[in-house]
Amino acid sequence: MKVSINWLKHYVPINMTIPDLAEALTMAGLEVDAIEDRYAYLDTVVVGEVLSVSPHPNADRLRCCKVDAGGEILSIVCGAPNVAVGMKAPLAKVGTRLPGGVLLEKTRIRGEASCGMLCSETELELGLDRSGLMVLDGSFLPGTPLKEALGLDDVVLEIGLTPNRPDCLSMIGVAREIAAIQNINITKPAVSVLAAAGPLPPSTTITIEAPDHCPRYSARVVGPLTVAPSPFWLQDRLRSVGVRPINNIVDITNFVMLETGQPLHAFDFDFLAGHRIVVKTAAQGEGFVTLDKKQRTLTDQMLMICDGEKPVAIGGVMGGLDSEIKDTTTRVLIESACFNPISIRKTAKTLGLSTDAAYRYERGVDPGGTLFALNRATALMVELGNGAPLGDIMDADFRPAPQPPIHLNVAATNTLLGTDLDSEKMADFLERVEFSVTSRDDQHLVVAIPSFRVDVTLPQDLMEEVARLWGYHHIPTTYPAPPATGPKDSPLMAVRQRIREILVGFGFSEAINYSFISPESGDRIRLNADDPRRSHVTLLNPISEDQAVMRTSLVPGMLETVQRNVSRQQSRIRLFEIGKVFFPQPGALLPVEREMVIAAWTGPVTDPVWHTRERACDFYDIKGVAEGLLKGLGITAATFTACSDDACQYTRTGYTASVFAADGKVIGQVGEVDAGVLHSYQIRQPVFIFEFEGEALAAAMAGTPQMAPIPRFPATDRDITVIVDQDIESNRLIEKLLAFDEPLVEQVSLFDVFSGDPIPDGKKSVSLRVVYRSSERTLEDEAINALHRDLTHRLIAVFDADLPM
Q1: CA 326 – CA 71 distance, rounded (Å)
Q2: CB of 282 closer than 8 Å to CB of 304
């Protein structure tokens, strides 16, 4: 929104500097984005005195002039008929950019050098006379800047308005704010209802068939009038804010819109069939040609302004080509209406049309201001178009009942704002911007809302008005008093951060997937029909069909992310995610939320290098990461046990293990993703995953780590090799050895598994290494050998094992 300071001064005196005004407006909520000198283009235009004039040797209508530019004599080729020796005229020097966009350069015209340009009023947009050079006062000294000589001084402010302040999309609206800042009164233009000079055709009526789209439509006819160029003052006003003058009728509608904020539209009255206006919605698929000569396809939700036969304008957005004002127009119907902001916003967005009228309508115009703007435009058209009002004002009004007054609590306002203002001060602030305080006491104000403040509906809105008019910089800065003891962080927060640190240390990257998945995800990962993860929380307004339910598993999102990366030639992928899954509760408003941890690994273990042979990751790689994660969390008693075939839904049978905590509860699963599941996600390479329940991990974590002294005595180790049944898990042997609770056994580890000749069928050889240490003495071989034999025999007895031959 551009506003001219000179234009604003017609409504309110400005008793402060421009920088101070810009700062005050910004602090009042009208942010000034830019301050521009309107006449900056005249910086290189000076008073020039013509010293000599001679005919151009190569052109009959051109003259070669010598012009005094103040300290330098310039050669200028001029075609103006009134150029004469001794006259003073504006001289645009080389480098000047004229209002039309032309950049003056040193050039040769018909062979003669020209180092500038002598200008007319029109060329500098300082008047309407284009017949010859602009004649300046003879007392001006050559070389004097033209702005200084003519006293040209105007500043344009560019204000960035928030969508809730449509009342400031006008000169009067901004002037009202300036008057409130300076605590003075605003002077609005005097407007009266002009008496009709003649009747209208009896058929002239206004009918609103869509009052929900158009609650008010006011109109008046003016004629006979003359369409002509606008006077200079009107053109100058429009140009000052960047609007191009067209003719007196159209310029008046633009001027009144900029002055009052009420968009107007002028129809050629004689081209309205039946001299009627009908406001209704369009037919679905109906075509319409707008003023920009483009064919538009309408919907049944778009509001149209129609005559007795056809549409003539898209309501609040743009007029039609057939009813525009032409040079031959003699009678004009002026439209001043109030449209539904939502309707206009949808129409403008659908059609891709952005107009000054739509910009204001979609934010909300003053429903009580249509007649003021209509009468203002009528008076100007009578004055500048030599016309007269015909008939009375037509006003179809379907506005709802006015908003009831708002009760403002003084104490609540001070508490919210951190101020100490009394009711009189608050009332004064509100009355400065034309709110009416109808009742007041020390603790309460009853405030009537002016119709132009369509954004004020709540007491909090009035509190905001008090705050901005008092000045945000006057409100003291305060800080909330911190409690003596702060709230404790959730244990899961520390677990999450520790999980991130560990997995990032293993070379994994964190993924963040949507909490929404496809309803078909349960089928894609082959969940059993009775699996609770098939019960979803359905979204009322999903982003898409593929994100219509809340996730009950992190697996679908992770596999989609893997597929997306693989499809982009990223074959080596290590990802993890920490997120919640959601399960519906019958009869409850909110679902049950559970936190899960998932990691996926696919592709080579390492990037290809010349000294290392490439190897694809396998089950033991992902299991090793899972073990490292558990160890890093202090969960040392976890065990991995092969899953039964029934428990392997989306993982490969024989390559899946359940993870148990020390208390025997399942806390997670690790395995290779089933080939059928990978096929449903179009992944063509093996993927290995593990999943853990976040709360289960937190519960299984040990308490505060305890310091253990560094061993003083050396350790010694012995190996045990036994032959056991093929289906006995090696980890069971380790668990049993540790369960013997021999104090000298410090560690047991698996270092070899072998099956095949000469091991009998159905058997396997398992080799374990047992580390012995005493905290009190150095162990002797004889004692260790005896203990080791005893443990070996006990192990053989438990598992019905054999020693290798």
Answers
A1: 50
A2: yes
- Yes or no: say if 670 and 690 are a contact pair by the CB < 8 Å rule: yes
Q: Name the band, by pLDDT with cuts 50, 70 and 90, for residue 598.
A: very high
In DSSP notation, 255-300 reads HHHHHHS--EEEEEGGGSGGG-EEEEEPPTT-EEEBTTS-EEE--T
Contact 296, 350 (CB under 8 A): no
Q: Please name every residue paired with 694 in a beta bridge, in sequence order, or none if there are none.
A: none
Write down the residue that tokens 């003879």 correspond to: 138
Which amino acid is residue 386, in one-letter code?
Answer: N
Element (H, E) at 108: strand 107-109
Q: Is there a contact between 498 and 505 (Cβ–Cβ < 8 Å)?
A: no
Cβ 280 vs Cβ 316: under 8 Å: no
Q: Are 746 and 772 in contact (CB under 8 A)?
A: yes
Q: Any long-range contacts for 777-786 (C-beta under 8 Å, 24+ apart)?
A: 777/713, 778/713, 778/714, 779/713, 779/716, 779/744, 781/716, 784/716, 784/718, 784/744, 785/718
pLDDT of residue 709: 83
Q: What is the pLDDT of residue 263?
A: 97
Strand bridging mode 2-4 / 155-160: antiparallel
Task: Round to whole Å and give the CA distance between 492 and 485.
Answer: 20
Per-residue pLDDT of 457-476, as tens digits, reads 999 999 999 999 999 888 88
Residues 6+ apart with CB under 8 A from 480: none
In sequence order, the β-bridge partners of residue 64 are 54, 77
pTM for this prediction = 0.67
Q: Is 90 exceeded by the pLDDT of residue 196?
A: yes
3-class state of residue 168 by DSSP: helix
Both tokens of residue 463? 């509190």
Instruction: Calculate the alpha carbon distances from 612 to 306, 604, 605 in Å.
Output: 80, 12, 11
3 state SS of 148: helix
Task: Enter the tokens of residue 420.
Answer: 């100490």
Dig out the tokens for 558 from the structure. 């992770």
Burial track 167-183 (b if 16+ CB lie within 10 A, e otherwise)? bbbbbbbbbbbbbbbbe
Q: Is 178 left (phi over 0), alpha (psi -120 to 50) or beta?
A: alpha
| Complete DSSP assignment for 595-658 | EEEEEEEESBSS--BTTB---B--HHHHHHHHHHHHHHTT--S-EEEEPPGGG-SSEEEEEEEE
Q: Helix (H, G, I), strand (E, B), or coil: what is residue 544?
A: coil
- Contact of 8 with 28, CB cutoff 8 Å: no
The residue length of the chain stands at 805
Contact 220, 256 (CB under 8 A): no
Nearest to 750 by CA among 640, 625, 604: 640
Q: Which residues contact 415 (CB under 8 A, 6 or more apart)?
A: none
Assign 156 to helix, strand or coil.
Answer: strand
**What does DSSP say about strands 116-118 and 2-4: parallel, antiparallel, or unpaired?**
unpaired
The tokens for 436 are 């009416």
> How far apart (Å, rounded) are the C-alpha atoms in residues 376 and 260?
9
116 closest CA partner among 90, 92, 136, 133: 92
Residue 324 and residue 244: Cα distance in Å, rounded?
A: 17
Question: How far is the C-alpha of 156 from the C-alpha of 172, rounded, in Å?
Answer: 15
